[in-house]
Amino acid sequence: MDKVELLAPAGNLEKLKIAINYGADAVYGGTSTFSLRIRSGKEFDLDSFKAGIDYAHERGKKVYVTINGFPFNSQLKLYENHLAKMRELGPDAFIVSSPGVIRMARKVAPEIPIHLSTQANVMNAMDAAVYYDMGVRRIIAAREISLKDCEAIKKELPDLELEIFVHGSMCFAYSGRCLISALQTGRVPNRGSCANDCRFPYEIYAHNPESGTTFKLEEETEIGTYIMNAKDMNLASHIDEILSSGVIDSLKIEGRTKSPYYVATVTRAYRQAIDDYYAGVFEAERYQKELHTTQNRGFTDAYLISRPFERHDTQSQGFTIQEGTHQVAALVGEEGTTWRCKDKTCVGDRLEIVLPVGATLQEVENEYGKVELGEEGKWWLTIKKIVALSGKEFECIHSGDLNDIILPTKFPGYTILRRDIREARAKKGLTPEPQAIQRREEKY
């Protein structure tokens, strides 16, 4: 079997480039409302998406186009036109959900491979065979599938590629089959505009229609009322088991609307996990430590290894999202000569340098700062001067400032500068929340 593919989200052109620089073999994204992430679809236009495809292909990487919405009758011609436009850009596959769109894609762009979206909810070899006969060459399995079921599908259809999610947001419903958002806000999840109503706290009442009496039900102390809030999937500790099965062709990271830091860090962690597996040096704790630097809703290994009825850790009832162990301070530009502030940064600050996969640095010290290799092989930048390209000088610079700040030496493009979350909170005058951080570190 060939080496497994690592597939990362591309919410816009910058995040597409970051994903590739941090180790993705392929990325997925789309334009327009025909993709199931309307917000990220609006961040690409035809020109920028074409630029992303060209950028990926120049580096031997692939781009899969998301066209996985479910069309109304009034949209059928629009879908056909959109497929034709996407065909002209030369992507490596279409990701679709609807059987009708599959047939339409084969007519409009017969040379483009078809990947079946997780929205189609394939869980067994029988359904997989139906789609395979229709021309689908890869199935993105439902998040609720088990590894044993993947093995059964592969045994029945050895030429069918299987892709599974390994990290990212989990849906309260069955792979997105949810109407809560549509009911409460009119935003339809399966058309890309989910309002994430499951992420909010709810008050629960009992009503007696005979007497007209309504009672508010009180939750136990510290249990919380985020009763539909699913934890985030994190299968990094099981990558060795997944790859040893020999039946998975692609590992997918969720998150087209998430931050550049999330894309970089998560892609880099799974790249290391995959490479370490093939090198025979797999070490789950290393990858988990990096993944826990990102914001999350708590982590669960979900359902691939254990069946849903065996799980008791898939909900975060006490909060909607929590900080990771680190905060991004700055992002280095593509050219590698300047950085932009993402969190308050001052002269004298010492920031950890997170490099793209395969990138290197040289130690240097000058008027702008000091770059050094520290303990555990980590690179650090101590800031001595904050000077913009315009010549303006700062003692401190704040998040959202668009000045490009000069680096002491050329860095690899899209390098990340970060600090411990306790330090970041202290700079804002906030409590460090050591207990929350400890809860995360206990999972290592």
From TrEMBL:
The keyword Cell membrane does not apply. GO terms for biological process: proteolysis. It comes from the Bacteria. GO terms for molecular function: peptidase activity. This is Collagenase. Keywords: Hydrolase, Protease. Belongs to the peptidase U32 family. It comes from Nitratifractor salsuginis (strain DSM 16511 / JCM 12458 / E9I37-1). Signal peptide: none annotated. It holds the Pfam family Peptidase_U32. The keyword Protease applies. Coiled coil: none annotated.
